[in-house]
C-alpha cells in the first residue's frame, strides 16, 4: 500500500510546489530608518557567497535616444579571487510585473584581454548575459564592457514621459566600491533623480556634475544586491515614445480552475482507498489534460513569446486532469501486494 501512495503523492506535491513558486513574491516593506548621507550606502554588507571578490568600479552611461530607445554602456572592473572564475554574469530585467521590455543588440568586450564572448538566455524575468569562456578561467582584476539597447523603456504620462531604470541592478552578489551613472539626453535634463540601495531602503545618490544635456551621479560602498535607480522626466514629444507592452500575469486562474485543481489533489488521495480505475482511463485523462494545457499556452506563446505564458482556468483544469491521470498510472506502476494484480484490487 505504501508503494502505491508514494508515486502519486510525490508527483502531486511537485506540481503543487511548482504552482506555489510561480506566484509573485510580496513586495518588501519600506524601511523607516533615518536616511544616510547622499553618496553613501546605508546598508551593512551581508556575507556573500563570493568571498574575496568585488567590483572595484562600475561606470554606466544611459543615453536616451531621440527614437525612444535606451542605449546602455556598462564598464565593470571586477576583482576575481585566486581560485579563478570563467567570467561574469549580468542580469538585465526584461519583465517587471506585467510589463515587458525589449532588451536587444548585446555587445561585450574586455580592455584587459579577458575572454568576453557573450551568451544570452531568458528566464522568468531576466535576460542573463554571461560574459567569458567556459573553458578558460580568469583571476585578478579584469575589465568588461557590456552594451545593449532597451526598447519600450519610457512610460507616457499625462504631462510628461518618464523613464525608470536601475542602472546597476540588484542581482550582483558582491560589493561595489565605486559606482557612477551618467544620463545623456537630446534635450535639456531638468528632472532627473537617483536613489541607491536595496528595494525599499534607498538613499539619494550624490550628484556629481550637471550639464544641459547630461547629469552624473556617483555612489560608494554599495553592498551586494544594491542598485542605483534612475528616474527621468522629459517633456512630451522630446523623444519618440513607443507604447508600453504588457502581458497577462503569471496567475490568471479564477475559482473554477483553482477548485478543479484542489479536487484533483483530493482525488489522488482517494485513489489508494478505492478500486483504481483502469490504466487506460489514466492515460486518457493525462492526455486530455496535456492537450488542454498546450491549447491554453499555445495562444499566449504564439502571440507574446514563451515567457508571457500564464496559468489560466483552462491550464489549471488541464493540470487537474493530468494529476488524476498520472496518479492512476503511478498506482499501476507500483509494486504489487498480496491479493492485488498490477496494483489494482481484484474485482
TrEMBL record:
<feature type="transmembrane region" description="Helical">
    <location>
        <begin position="253"/>
        <end position="272"/>
    </location>
</feature>
<feature type="transmembrane region" description="Helical">
    <location>
        <begin position="317"/>
        <end position="334"/>
    </location>
</feature>
<keyword id="KW-1133">Transmembrane helix</keyword>
<keyword id="KW-0732">Signal</keyword>
<feature type="signal peptide">
    <location>
        <begin position="1"/>
        <end position="33"/>
    </location>
</feature>
<feature type="domain" description="DUF2207">
    <location>
        <begin position="54"/>
        <end position="232"/>
    </location>
</feature>
<protein>
    <submittedName>
        <fullName>DUF2207 domain-containing protein</fullName>
    </submittedName>
</protein>
<dbReference type="Pfam" id="PF09972">
    <property type="entry name" value="DUF2207"/>
</dbReference>
<keyword id="KW-0812">Transmembrane</keyword>
<keyword id="KW-0472">Membrane</keyword>
<dbReference type="InterPro" id="IPR018702">
    <property type="entry name" value="DUF2207"/>
</dbReference>
